[in-house]
Amino acid sequence: MVVPFIVQIVVSVGLVGYLSYRSGQDSVNQLATELRKQTVNQVGQFLNSYLATPVLINRINADAMKAGQISFQDLPQLEKHLYRQLQQFNNVSHILVGTERGDLRIVNRDPLPSLWMSDPLE
After folding, report:
1. Is the pTM of this model over 0.70?
2. Strand order in 104-109's β-sheet?
3. How far apart are CA 11 and CA 18, in angstroms?
4. What is the SS3 assignment for 89?
């Protein structure tokens, strides 16, 4: 009479332990999945924010070129424009403007603002 009672207790305790273990595993898996989703969303938001500034600068420069406000023909004015942009956008380290011909004007802060020029014909 004692042996069946002990077997019943051992089986009950074992079953409860197993179910608790499985429940804990499911909870951990759900939390891990939720954490992964949050991480993916945060990385996506950061990248969208980080990459929005260069796209904005490119759009501003393309519009200014089309409107004739800046030109590769007036290099001092173009360089001033690029320096002003570098000062306005603190999270940008370089701004590059180029032509189809290969002319380049690059301003960067390294750590002080500087200008680099390239002419493919020189």
Report:
1. no
2. 94-98, 104-109, 113-118
3. 10
4. coil
Quick check: helix, strand or coil at residue 90?
Answer: coil
Residue 115 has pLDDT above 70, yes or no: no
| Structural contact between residues 59 and 95, judged by C-beta atoms closer than 8 angstroms | no
Q: Which helix (H) or strand (E) holds 104?
A: strand 104-109
What rounded mean pLDDT belongs to the chain?
86
Q: What is the token pair recorded at 28?
A: 């951990």
**CA gap 61, 31 in Å, rounded:** 46
DSSP secondary structure string for all residues of 24-40: HHHHHHHHHHHHHHHHH
Enumerate the β-bridge partners of residue 118. Answer: 104
